[in-house]
């Protein structure tokens, strides 16, 4: 449609250009080839050849002869000129002569301009009408999903939870015989990048039904009623297809809890939510429409949206475990040239990586291998990509870093390393480096946490001690007056952990088993005791960390010397040092 409209706009433009060209050529021709001397004009008057003279205030006059030819001559500008012509029986017209071809050209130019303006205004009205139209759904919302559950590695529990939906869409009669109704809505919730959208597409692909995908923000408009009407139009289009899957990503954009202080739900978002609730309650169970939605914040959604009959089923799409990560890595490496890569090791290293982050890791490794013109992707490429994912790119120009700063960074990182090696021996310290990164780190230590479902109080305290190990090492080596700002991030994280222990996990004495967030709903909480207890905890753990490092000072000095020499140490280097001591 857009291409055809552009063609129509070209027609008046081309006509106007041609008419203008004709007009210009006529003016040039008349000026250069159609001018006669005034003496010749007087001869024509004497010989009774002149029929009409066009007299105007211009320097030239036009003369029409009895044989029909026209020419220009000089205007004498004499007061008796008109009288002389009239006495000779010659018609005098006091206007400029305009040739017929010139008049036609001017008419074409004006007509083309008018047509162009009309087409532009019409097109603008259509665009404006479409923009304001309540049922205007941006983009192509319906597609045929070619993904299946084989395309979704990991998330076995989530896939199992939607298997019956696929079966229902394939064989509705089978469930109708048992009097079972199709769940009207499914909420997929979990951290970003865990594959919620992918799972929804796989459901549509497995059932071989149309997939209507929209984002919550697509319904939000500044015009009241637009979002609600778009919801109705979406369901109308889905119903026209028979069985279908409607997927609304980031549903919290329209499904947030409604504020009771606002009157009548007059806001656009509230009207959109009301329309969604009405549509989900209104369609028939036998229509075969399944509404799936994804969110990162289930706790923010309105209770009316989550009740049975609306979104009946809530499925958590979690971060992949070690077995799922292995499957995801195998899936993303399947069509790539790979060398000797230990998938199991990388699955263990990438704890807390989402599916999207694992895909990014493999892609980054492929880019690095391509840059090096390597035949295959090897472990070294995966290792470089892993460091980039966690800490950013290594800075190439490091000449500005002084020897003193390198020493501070080295002792700081080894402080973390030694505390981790001593307190958390099951957590593998895979890499320690003093090479600064583009994410602002002067150096960094990468350790692989244990695969745990729960974290104990003792473990959390040890994690805090590992975080404080860098500052403690600085104080032990350089003295309390020469500690640096390098521990900024560590202090921030340790403060967060300590406060969570007190106010969320019930591991402190100031609140006991009370949860601060819930308590703040009914009363104002005095935070002084909580801050005091957090400070006491961190002070105690810092002293223990400092004492641990002083006890193992020789190990700290030995590993730091190696780190200053090599700039980067790996697990094997650290393991051999630990055995030696």
Please name the defining characteristics of this protein.
4 domains; Helicase, Ruva Protein, domain 3; elongated; Signal recognition particle alu RNA binding heterodimer, srp9/1; 581 residues; 22 helices; 11% strand; Rossmann fold; alpha/beta
Write the layout of secondary structure elements.
Layout (H helix, E strand, L loop, with lengths): L1 H32 L4 H9 L3 E5 L5 E6 L4 E5 L6 H7 L3 E3 L6 H33 L9 E3 L11 H15 L1 H5 L8 E5 L6 H12 L2 E6 L10 H15 L3 E6 L2 H4 L12 H15 L6 E7 L7 H4 L6 E4 L5 H12 L9 H7 L5 H17 L7 H13 L11 H21 L4 E6 L10 E5 L8 H22 L9 H16 L12 H4 L8 H24 L1 H14 L1 E3 H10 L1
Parallel strand pairs: 1-4, 6-9, 6-10, 7-8, 8-9
Antiparallel strand pairs: 1-2, 2-3, 5-7, 11-12, 11-13
Structure explained in plain terms:
The chain is an alpha/beta fold and 581 residues long. The chain folds into four domains: 2-102, Signal recognition particle alu RNA binding heterodimer, srp9/1, CATH 3.30.720; 142-316, 3-Layer(aba) Sandwich (Rossmann fold), CATH 3.40.50.300; 323-391, Orthogonal Bundle (Helicase, Ruva Protein, domain 3), CATH 1.10.8.60; 403-580, Methane Monooxygenase Hydroxylase, Chain G, domain 1, CATH 1.20.58. The protein contains 22 helices and 13 strands. It has helices at residues 2-33, 38-46, 81-87, 100-132, 156-170, 172-176, 196-207, 226-240, 252-255, 268-282, 303-306, 322-333, 343-349, 355-371, 379-391, 403-423, 457-478, 488-503, 516-519, 528-551, 553-566, 571-580, and strands spanning 50-54, 60-65, 70-74, 91-93, 142-144, 185-189, 210-215, 244-249, 289-295, 313-316, 428-433, 444-448, 568-570. The strands form three sheets. It has a six-stranded mixed sheet, with helices on both faces. A four-stranded mixed sheet has the order 3-2-1-4, covered by helices on one side. A hairpin with a 5-residue loop joins β1 and β2. α12 packs across α13 (343-349), α14 (355-371) packs across α15 (379-391) and α17 (457-478) crosses α20 (528-551). It is elongated. The two termini are 77 Å apart.
């Amino acid at each position: 449609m857009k291409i055809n409209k552009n063609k129509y706009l070209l027609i008046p433009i081309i006509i106007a250009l041609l008419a203008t060209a004709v007009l210009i050529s006529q003016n040039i021709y008349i000026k250069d080839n159609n001018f006669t001397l005034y003496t010749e004009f007087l001869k024509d008057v004497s010989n009774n050849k002149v029929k009409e003279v066009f007299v105007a205030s211009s320097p030239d006059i036009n003369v029409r002869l009895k044989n029909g030819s026209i020419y220009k001559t000089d205007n004498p500008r004499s007061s008796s000129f008109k009288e002389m012509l009239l006495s000779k029986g010659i018609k005098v017209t006091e206007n400029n002569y305009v040739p017929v071809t010139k008049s036609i050209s001017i008419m074409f130019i004006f007509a083309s301009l008018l047509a162009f303006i009309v087409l532009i205004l019409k097109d603008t009205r259509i665009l404006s009408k479409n923009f304001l139209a309540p049922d205007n759904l941006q983009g192509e919302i319906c597609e045929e999903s070619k993904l299946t559950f084989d395309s979704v590695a990991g998330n076995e529990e989530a896939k199992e939870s939607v298997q019956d939906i696929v079966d229902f869409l394939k064989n509705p009669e089978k469930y109708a015989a048992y009097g079972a109704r199709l769940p009207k809505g499914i909420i997929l919730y979990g951290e970003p990048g865990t594959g919620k959208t992918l799972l929804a597409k796989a459901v549509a692909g497995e059932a071989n039904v149309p997939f209507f995908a929209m984002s919550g923000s697509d319904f939000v408009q500044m015009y009241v009623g637009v979002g609600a009407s778009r919801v109705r139009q979406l369901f109308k289009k889905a119903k026209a297809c028979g069985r279908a899957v409607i997927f609304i990503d980031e549903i919290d954009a329209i499904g947030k809890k409604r504020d009771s202080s606002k009157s009548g739900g007059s806001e656009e978002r509230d009207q959109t939510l009301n329309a969604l609730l009405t549509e989900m309650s209104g369609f028939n169970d036998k229509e075969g429409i399944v509404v799936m939605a994804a969110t990162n914040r289930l706790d923010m959604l309105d209770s009316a949206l989550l009740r049975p009959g609306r979104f009946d089923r809530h499925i958590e799409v979690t971060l992949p475990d070690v077995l799922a990560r292995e499957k995801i890595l195998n899936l993303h490496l399947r069509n790539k040239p790979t060398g000797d890569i230990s998938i199991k090791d990388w699955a263990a290293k990438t704890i807390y990586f989402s599916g999207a982050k694992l895909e990014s890791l493999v892609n980054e490794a492929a880019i690095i291998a391509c840059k090096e013109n390597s035949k295959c992707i090897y472990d070294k490429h995966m290792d470089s990509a892993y460091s980039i994912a966690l800490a950013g790119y290594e800075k190439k120009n490091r000449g500005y870093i002084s020897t003193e700063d390198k020493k501070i960074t080295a002792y700081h990182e080894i402080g973390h390393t030694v505390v981790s090696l001593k307190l958390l021996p099951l957590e593998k310290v895979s890499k320690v480096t003093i090479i600064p990164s583009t994410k602002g780190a002067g150096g960094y230590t990468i350790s692989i946490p244990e695969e745990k479902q729960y974290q104990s109080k003792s473990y959390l305290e040890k994690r805090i001690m590992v975080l404080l190990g860098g500052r403690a090492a600085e104080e032990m080596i350089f003295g309390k007056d020469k500690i640096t700002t390098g521990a900024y991030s560590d202090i921030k994280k340790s403060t967060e952990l300590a406060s969570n222990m007190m106010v969320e996990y019930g591991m402190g004495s100031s609140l006991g088993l009370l949860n601060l967030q819930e308590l703040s709903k009914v009363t104002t909480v005095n935070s002084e005791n909580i801050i005091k207890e957090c400070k006491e905890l961190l002070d105690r753990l810092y002293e223990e960390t400092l004492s641990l490092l002083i006890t193992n000072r020789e190990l700290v000095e030995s590993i730091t010397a190696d780190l200053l020499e090599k700039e980067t140490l790996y697990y094997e280097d650290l393991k051999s040092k630990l055995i030696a001591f």
